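Example complex used in Figure S2.
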Amino acid sequence: MTEPSAVQPSISDIIAALKDKPGALLPILHGIQDALGYIPPSSIPEIASSLNLSRAEVHGVISFYHYFRETPPGKNTIHLCLAESCQAMGAKRLEQHVKGKLGIDFHETTADGAFSLEPVYCLGNCACSPAMQVGHDIYGRVSPESFDDVINYLGESA
Amino acid sequence: MSTKIYVSCDSGALSLGAEKTASTIAQQAEKRGLQIDLIRNGSRGMYWLEPMVEVATDKGRIAYGPVKPEDVAGLFDADFITGGQHPLSQGLTEAIPYFKNQQRLTFARVGITDPVSLDDYLQHDGYRGLNNTLAMTGAEVVKQVTDSGLRGRGGAAFPTGIKWNTVLNTPSEQKYVICNADEGDSGTFSDRMIMEGDPFVLIEGMTIAGIAVGATQGYIYLRVEYPHAHANLNSAIESAYQAGYLGDNILGSGKSFHLEVRLGAGAYVCGEETSLMESLEGKRGLVRFKPPLPAISGLFGKPTIVNNVISLASVPIILDKGGEFYRDFGMGRSRGTLPLQLAGNIKHPGLVELAFGPTLREILYDFGGGSATGRPIKAVQVGGPLGAYMPESQFDTPLDYEAFAQLWAVVGHGGIVVFDDTVDMAEMARYSMEFCAIESCGKCTPCRIGSTRGYEVLDEIIKGHDLNKNIPLLRDLCDTLLNGSLCALGGMTPYPVLSALNHFPEDFGVSDKANAA
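Predicted assembly (675 residues):
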């Protein structure tokens, strides 16, 4: 799926649909990441030429923002909140449990490709700390047990 | 006749299983042949009761919570759809002291209406502010906002009317209104609740701002972490366009205002207004030098209003009821109401909108009910990750921008994160420096390098190495960040670091305050 020929048409469509917006680069990057889960480095020249930017400028923007990624994520990306409110409710202990359970550190993907793990600094769910997000689904008052339930459920359906 | 049942679609409620609760209610009703009208409202902000279910009765709405899917059959057995008694019954929602004792102006509709129903919005006083605006001159609208005393709710507390007046009086063929919805401050969620629970009030506030200063294009710069807010905003914007509340010739007035949501990409610093504009222009979110002020040369070099979600969402009620109505709430130079967000280790977390003035202690104990763990509260961080840690001895401070500033603390965006006595404040100080290092845009040296040196020094302090050398070094470093940084990220990271050191020296291995100083 990472072959340029396989992804190119879809990327071209996304660029064509968005490139005339003022400040089009972030919408284009979001469009590509929504479609593919990441921004293939091979797409950078086409993005750059469509916006009359250098490849370095496009790469600079991708690398500036934590959310954008240039490698394919696992089937499910877990965003674990590490901000103060979640820390006040045990996020550090939860972090250890999560890393142990998945056997990976932050910014890594499990060997079976099922889960990627990313830290996040606030999901705005501070009234239900500790919190995490998996895809678009948000979870509150996450305990090691409830984390395992979510992971086991998603792992089975994977 | 079908009974109206409300289950929140707020992402906090969803995070606790509201979707499953709602679907179970629908299944049970069908199984029992009962007619119900299931409405997905915003959250009332009482998160310890979420997923909360409300039933409309002739006495008012009755609340049940927290309702898990397995509780639903029992609720039907107890005839909850006519308000029947059940162990989860909380009585009339609006009689619950936590809710009843608030002064909800900005949040007047949140939790009451269907967030994406324009009809519901109109039936609950929606768009009255815009109707008044269309009959006024731009200067008259700006005067109402100035008279209201509204100050920027994003954290900087700059008078909103002054900002608007500058944009109004700067001639340009194109002006912009930007809503800063990059609510990255940990411990804050009021922007999210408004955008999920009453998106039209933000759209109306931005439309009023645009018409007042002659801006025809608005952008909501929304953080990518808020997918539910994104969906509700887009749905509400589409309805507003269809009904003529957005677009060209709004309500036949000849005035135009267009609005679009743009997503951020996980950079905390993009909540800084100049970094935000760089990001909207499609660049790395590097902070700009000021001047020029955004009000004179902002987005794409044009005069731009940049206001926080809560500031803009407070505008419709000001234009509906007048600047004086809003100004009559509050104390000193802090006018109106502030939606506070109680978070962290607190028994009753949630949204508490109050006029400025009550003390931190009243909020923590009368509303919050003390810590969730039942242990003593050791410290609270007010105003996000760049806010000071406050010890118990400061809990009698009234919520007021100036009173907080006197203590070298900030009200900020009104987030209050509570920690019990198990917290290690040296670790929290280290985290503040680490966070600054992760999120620094890298443009200015004090923030880019100082934050990394900061957590390195704190690592040494936590190990107990050379305290008499390292603590002065940390203070010196904080002084550089404070005075030499380009924006609030580097400039305010010393607030949590030094307040932790000053108020809790024992956590840094320093036995008394004289040694810490």
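The CA atoms of residues 3 and 36 of chain B lie 5 Å apart. The longest strand of chain B covers residues 337-344.
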